[in-house]
Amino acid sequence: MINSMPDDDAVREALREVEDPEAGMNIVDLGLVYLIEVGDNSVHVEMTMTTAACPMADMITDNAHRAIAAISPSDAAIDVELVWDPPRSPDKMTGIARDHFGW
User: Distance (Å, rounded) from C-alpha 95 to C-alpha 103?
Assistant: First the structure.
């Protein structure tokens, strides 16, 4: 049983386990995670998809929710919000992702 809330870095690391199957890379390195806020008993994440027409959006956000829940107390409120502003751009990708895609 997990008794304490994870910090922002732990949430970010958990989200590195969530892959965008179309891109073949995790959502953190792809630059899809915009905001992580950890409260006393809550985690709020704002993220986006590579495109608004992404057919995997529900699956990816569900997987993000599960990854956060796995490192949080069972009574923690977890909110994974899909946002479209600012629009996703490749400049938010990590060097690992840029290398992966040959950019």
Answer: 9
Are the C-beta atoms of residues 32 and 81 closer than 8 Å to each other?
Answer: no
Which stretch of DSSP H or E encloses residue 78? strand 77-82
95: helix, coil or strand? Answer: helix
pLDDT tens digit string along 27-66?
Answer: 999 999 999 999 999 999 999 998 888 899 999 999 999 9
Residue type, 87: P
**pTM, two decimal places:** 0.93
Tokens 């751009």 locate to: 89
Report d(CA 22, CA 69) in Å as an integer.
24
CATH class of 8-90: alpha beta
The Cα diameter of the chain in Å comes to: 43
Q: Closest by alpha carbon to 11, among 60, 56, 61, 70? A: 70
